[in-house]
Amino acid sequence: MVGILDVDLCGPSIPRMLGVGRQEVHQCDSGWVPVYTDAQKSLALMSIGFLLEDPDEAVVWRGPKKTALIGQFVSDVAWGELDVLLVDTPPGTSDEHLAVLENLKKQHKVDGAILVTTPQAVSTGDVRREITFCKKTGLSILGIVENMSGFVCPHCSECSNIFSKGGGEELAKLTGSIYLGAVPLDPLLCTSIEEGKDFIQTFPDSATFSAINIIAQTLLTCLQNS
Questions:
Q1: What 3 state SS string does the chain have?
Q2: CB within 8 A of 126, min separation 6: which ones?
Q3: pLDDT on residue 85
Q4: Which Pfam families match (predicted)?
Q5: What is the distance, to the nearest Å, from the Cα of residue 73 to the centroid of all Cα atoms in its chain?
Q6: Fewer CB within 10 Å, N or C, the chain?
Q7: For 11-50, what is each residue's pLDDT tens digit?
């Protein structure tokens, strides 16, 4: 079973992407019960999005309050037996990142971080600082993914490099990190995410699915060998 912990407190978008909307979070003897996205209960999710009365409500919190909630998410959610816990964080190197890392290390083995960039130099510059953060905190880098790597035309499937190309791969070479692959800017993927639909089941023959699948398989192999 896979768990997803959404700690992007100011922009919790994972519930919408997975099509679970505004679910109520219940409690059991072991803590908060995560929201399951499928009948088989193979994918569990916890997000602050489930705790807000109004989805348009702004989360205006200072660092200590953010840190306290993240600590609760890590220690008080009844995940059950997980194979993998994936933590989605906001961009940058802020309170959320430190709080997640410190709390996870108290109770679990942390395999590492997956860094996502877009091809432009402005984005890769931000990710360089995230690499420095990982090195300073002793967090392994599992690899770098280049997102929005070219635009896939929905009519002819031709890929055009709107935001340039190769920035993620070049960054991986410069920093000695593993390059996991590139995901194009695909309107079909964007629509699926917006509507909370399963892109992989809907478009299994697309080049975008192939790119995502290669990244996932590479990561799984890395985790199994760690």
A1: CEEEEECCCCCCCHHHHCCCCCCCCEEECCEEECEECCCCCCEEEEEHHHCCCCCCCCCCCCHHHHHHHHHHHHHCECCCCCCEEEEECCCCCCHHHHHHHHHHHHHCCCCCEEEEECCCHHHHHHHHHHHHHHHHHCCCEEEEEEEEEEEECCCCCCEECCCCCCHHHHHHHHHCCCEEEEEEECHHHHHHHHHCCCHHHHCCCCHHHHHHHHHHHHHHHHHHHC
A2: 91, 92, 117
A3: 94
A4: ParA
A5: 16
A6: C
A7: 888 998 998 877 888 888 888 999 999 889 999 999 988 8
CB 145 within 8 A of CB 181: yes
- Specify the pairing of strand 141-152 against strand 113-117: parallel
Rg (CA), the chain: 18
pLDDT in tens, 158-187: 778 887 788 999 999 988 999 999 998 888
Are the CB atoms for 48 and 6 separated by under 8 Å?
Answer: yes
Burial code of 135-168, b = ≥16 C-beta within 10 A, e = fewer? eeeebebbbbbbebbbbbeeeeeebeeebebebb
